[in-house]
Write a structure and sequence with these properties.
alpha/beta; Spore Coat Polysaccharide Biosynthesis Protein SpsA, Chain A; three-stranded parallel β-sheet; 222 residues
């Protein structure tokens, strides 16, 4: 879980993760140089639940991509999935993704906010629809929610992708590299309530344009 200046929501997210209906899991939290009160909260959680919660404090901000790379490297589980530190996603839905893997229906599972009827800001909804459509057209595989945070897959597969992006363009890079290898992506409906700028939303127009560039680049450049 990458975290940057989320003192308003981080504790509630951690409490929800503590109630996950999964037989075994760990939560690796990477604080990416927060400057508000986030770190003080995280220090209280480090080692909680008999070591299930692990906190890594980075002094320098490396971007979401950098924080995720560090978290996956530190993870000890067979499968990994990213959890944002805000309240847009419901961690209880992670069990739905894992069930698809556990029952052998997929190796890579995405949680689709559109299939689940998520609540989006209009601008965000349009942007996500366009990016998902572009992904489907470029790679010849239907994907309803390319930008979703919930992408569950084997840890060794994630590491083999060698994700280089440091910002939100990590999402299209992950999807592009998976589809380019011919690995099917299974999508399941999840809940979602998008927040706005005043609530701490960080992604913007620049990130949308970077996502388009990333999708095109990895489609045609080896």
């Amino acid at each position: 879980m990458p975290v940057y200046n989320e003192e308003r929501s981080i504790e509630q997210v951690l409490r929800r993760l503590r109630r996950l209906p999964l037989p075994s899991y760990e939560v690796v939290v990477v604080d990416d140089g927060s400057t508000d009160g986030t770190r003080e909260i995280l220090r209280r959680w480090d080692g909680a639940e008999d070591g299930r919660f692990r906190v890594i404090l980075q002094e320098r901000n490396t971007g979401k991509g950098g924080a995720v790379r560090r978290g996956v490297q530190e993870a000890r589980g067979e499968y990994v999935v990213i959890q944002d530190a805000d309240l847009e996603y419901d961690p209880q839905d992670l069990a739905l993704l894992y069930r698809e893997i556990e029952q052998g229906r997929a190796r890579v599972v995405y949680g689709s906010r559109f299939l689940g009827g998520g609540e989006f800001l209009l601008s965000s909804k349009i942007a996500n629809r366009v990016l998902s459509l572009l992904t489907s057209v470029l790679y010849g595989k239907r994907v309803t929610d390319m930008e979703t945070c919930y992408k569950m897959m084997p840890r060794d597969l994630y590491l083999s992708l060698q994700i280089r992006a440091n910002r939100f363009d990590m999402e299209p890079e992950i999807t592009a590299k998976i589809l380019r290898q011919g690995i099917p992506i299974r999508e399941v409906p999840i809940r979602y309530r998008g927040r706005n700028r005043s609530e701490g939303k960080k992604i913007g127009v620049r990130d949308g344009l970077q996502a388009v560039y990333t999708l095109v680049r990895y489609r045609f450049v080896r």
